[in-house]
Design goal:
By secondary structure, the chain is mainly β. The chain has four domains: about 90 residues, Sandwich (Immunoglobulin-like), CATH 2.60.40; about 100 residues, Immunoglobulin-like; about 110 residues, Sandwich (Immunoglobulin-like), CATH 2.60.40; about 170 residues, Roll (C8orf32 fold). About 15% of the residues lie in helices and about 40% in strands. The strands form seven sheets. Strands 20, 21, 22, 23, 24, 30, 32, 33 and 34 form a nine-stranded antiparallel β-sheet that branches.
C-alpha cells in the first residue's frame, strides 16, 4: 500500500491542476434577448464544447429538457426556453465551470407603459471619447440601454468621400464596424468600445440595437494619409440557388445548408432582399445564412433560392505614403499577418522571396506595391483556372486569379503587411458572371486597399472590359464590376459533431462548409448555381 499512497497525491494534484486551469465557457450574446417561453434561444460564445454530453444550460435557474436542445457546438447553442418568471440569467455549464451570465427577459411579463409615459427604453449616447481619431483607432461610447451584448446591433460611422463627393453618394449613408476587422473590443449596457472602420469620414456616429437607434453623436476622423473617392454606383439584382435531391433517407435526419450572402463593406452594400424561398435558421452566422431542413424523405427534391439587390461603387484611393504613421499592432494586424494553409506566408520560399522583393523598404504601402509590381513583372496570368496552390505558381511562373490573390497575400503577410483574400464574381458586358478572387491590404489610419493582380496582369474574361491603364489601376483602385461575397476565409463550425460536411473549393465564397448532413440522410445530391445577374441599374 505504501507505494500506492506515495503515487496517489501527485496524480490527484495533476487532476486538480487541469481541472482548475480549464477555461470556463463564455457567452458573448444571446438572441432574442426578450422572448417567449418555448422560443428558440441562440447562445453565442466560446468554449461550449463540440457536443453537449454532460454540459447544460440554465435559464433563470431552470434547466431545459434534453429534447429542448436543437444544436450544440463550441460557439453556438440553440435551445428552447423553458417556463420562467419575469426574467433570469442565462448560464452555460461545462466541466464543473459556469459561464458569465446574460439576462433573458420573458416578453409576456414585461409591463406595458401607460399612455403618455415619457420613459424611453431605447439606447442613448452620453459621450464619445475621444471625439476625434484615425481609422483603426479605439473609440469608447458611453451611455445606457445598449444591451448587455451586441446581439445583432452595431455601431455605424458616417460614410462618404474624403474629397468632394459625386452627387450619387452625397446623401448621408453609413459604414458599419465589421466583426471580421475585429472592430468590436467590448459591448455592455453602458459602454461600447469599437475601432474606427475604413471608409469612415467625419460626421455622425450611431448605435443601433434591438431596442432601436440612439440619437447620433459626432466623431471627427483625422490623420488620414490620403483620400478616397466613391463613384459610379451600380445596383445589381442577383440570384443564386441550390437544388437538393434525396436518394435515400431514414428518419430522423437533418440537412444544413450554409448559403453565402453578399458582403457589406465601404464599397459594397447589401440592399433589399428581393426573395428568399425559405426562412433561415440563423440569418447571419459569420457572413452566411444557415438553413435547417429536418426529416427529409427518400425521393424528396427541393430548391433553396435567394435574390438580392447589391450596390457596388468604383473606388479610387490616393495615398500619401510619407504620411503613414506606425502604430502598435492590434488584433487585426496580428491575425492578418499570420500564416495559414491557404496563405503560407511562413513557407521558406515565400519568406526568402518577400525579403528579396522588399529589401530595406519599411513603409507598408511601398512594400505592398513592390510585391504587386514584382508579380506583374515576373509572372504570366491566366483567365482560365489552373492547378496548384500559390507556392506552386512560383515554379511555373503562371497564376490564375485564385493563385494570384493568395500569392499576393502570402508575400504581403511575410513582409509584415496585413492582407486577406477576397472572393466573389466578375460581371462582364453581357451581364454574365464568373468566380473571381482578388486581395486587400490594410494601412492603419486609412483602411483596406484593393489589389487585383490577375486583372492588373491582363487576365480578364473575354467579355470583360479592362481599363487602358489596368496595370496601374488595379493596385489601390477597384471598378464597380466586382461583387464580393467574402473577405478572408469564413471558418464555420459543424452543427453536429457526427455530421458529414461538404465544401466547394475556389468558388465565389471562401467558406469552409456549404452542406452538413446528419442523422439518417444517407444519400443525396446537391447542385449549387452560380450567381445570375437579373438586372443592372446605373446611377
Amino acid at each position: 500500500m505504501k507505494p500506492f499512497l506515495l503515487f496517489f497525491p501527485p496524480v490527484l494534484a495533476l487532476t486538480l491542476f487541469f481541472s482548475c486551469t480549464a477555461a470556463a465557457p463564455r457567452i458573448t450574446s444571446i438572441h432574442p434577448r426578450i422572448g417567449k417561453m418555448g422560443a428558440v434561444l441562440a447562445i453565442r460564445g466560446a468554449g461550449f464544447g463540440g457536443a453537449r454530453e454532460e454540459s447544460w444550460v440554465t435559464i433563470a435557474g431552470n434547466s431545459p429538457t434534453a429534447a429542448s436542445y436543437l444544436a450544440w457546438t463550441d460557439e453556438l447553442i440553440m435551445v428552447r426556453v423553458p417556463e420562467i418568471g419575469e426574467a433570469g440569467l442565462v448560464y452555460v455549464h461545462r466541466d464543473g465551470k459556469k459561464s458569465n451570465p446574460t439576462l433573458f427577459s420573458n416578453e409576456e411579463a414585461i409591463p406595458v407603459p401607460f399612455a403618455g409615459e415619457t420613459y424611453d427604453p431605447g439606447p442613448r449616447i452620453s459621450a464619445v471619447e475621444p471625439r476625434a481619431g484615425a481609422v483603426g483607432s479605439l473609440v469608447t461610447i458611453t451611455g445606457h440601454n445598449f444591451g448587455a451584448a451586441q446581439e445583432g446591433g452595431g455601431v455605424f460611422f458616417t460614410w462618404g468621400a474624403a474629397s468632394p463627393a459625386p452627387s450619387e453618394v452625397a446623401a448621408p449613408v453609413w459604414v458599419g464596424v465589421r466583426e471580421e476587422d475585429f472592430g468590436y473590443e467590448s459591448w455592455s449596457d453602458r459602454e461600447i468600445r469599437v475601432r474606427v472602420p475604413g471608409g469612415a469620414v467625419s460626421g455622425n456616429i450611431e448605435v443601433r440595437t434591438v431596442r432601436g437607434a440612439a440619437r447620433p453623436g459626432y466623431f471627427e476622423v483625422t490623420g488620414r494619409p490620403g483620400s478616397q473617392v466613391w463613384r459610379d454606383k451600380r445596383s445589381y439584382a442577383i440570384a443564386w440557388s441550390v437544388d437538393i435531391r434525396v436518394a435515400e433517407a431514414v428518419l430522423p435526419n437533418t440537412l444544413y445548408l450554409w448559403l453565402p450572402r453578399p458582403a457589406d463593406s465601404a464599397v459594397q452594400r447589401r440592399g433589399e432582399l428581393i426573395s428568399l424561398s425559405a426562412a433561415p435558421f440563423i440569418e447571419n452566422y459569420r457572413g452566411v445564412s444557415l438553413f435547417k431542413f429536418d426529416d427529409i424523405t427518400s425521393g424528396e427534391a427541393f430548391t433553396l433560392a435567394a435574390a438580392q439587390l447589391v450596390e457596388v461603387y468604383a473606388v479610387e484611393n490616393s495615398l500619401r505614403p510619407q504620411d503613414i504613421r506606425g502604430a502598435s499592432p492590434g488584433q487585426l494586424e496580428s491575425v492578418y499577418t499570420k500564416s495559414d494553409p491557404l496563405v503560407p506566408s511562413d513557407a521558406a520560399e515565400i519568406k526568402a522571396l518577400a525579403a528579396s522583393i522588399i529589401g530595406r523598404e519599411q513603409n507598408p504601402y511601398h512594400r505592398a506595391r513592390l510585391v504587386y509590381e514584382w508579380m506583374l513583372r515576373e509572372l504570366s496570368f491566366s483567365a482560365e483556372a489552373r492547378e496548384g496552390d500559390a507556392v506552386e505558381s512560383l515554379s511555373s511562373k503562371m497564376a490564375d486569379a485564385w493563385q494570384a490573390a493568395f500569392l499576393f497575400c502570402a508575400l504581403a503577410r511575410s513582409a509584415g503587411v496585413p492582407a486577406l483574400p477576397v472572393s466573389g464574381v466578375l460581371v462582364d458586358r453581357a451581364r454574365e458572371t464568373a468566380p473571381h478572387f482578388w486581395a486587400e491590404f490594410w494601412v492603419r489610419g486609412f483602411g483596406w486597399i484593393p489589389v487585383d493582380a490577375a486583372l492588373g496582369g491582363g487576365a480578364a474574361p473575354a467579355d470583360f472590359t479592362l481599363p487602358d491603364n489596368h496595370a496601374a489601376f488595379y493596385f489601390g483602385n477597384m471598378d464597380n464590376q466586382h461583387i464580393a461575397f467574402s473577405h478572408g476565409i469564413i471558418s464555420l463550425s459543424r452543427m453536429d459533431r457526427r455530421g458529414r460536411v461538404a465544401a466547394r473549393e475556389r468558388d465565389y465564397s471562401l467558406q469552409t462548409i456549404r452542406e452538413e448532413a446528419a442523422g439518417g440522410l444517407e444519400s443525396y445530391s446537391s447542385l449549387w448555381s452560380g450567381i445570375t445577374v437579373t438586372g443592372v441599374y446605373v446611377q
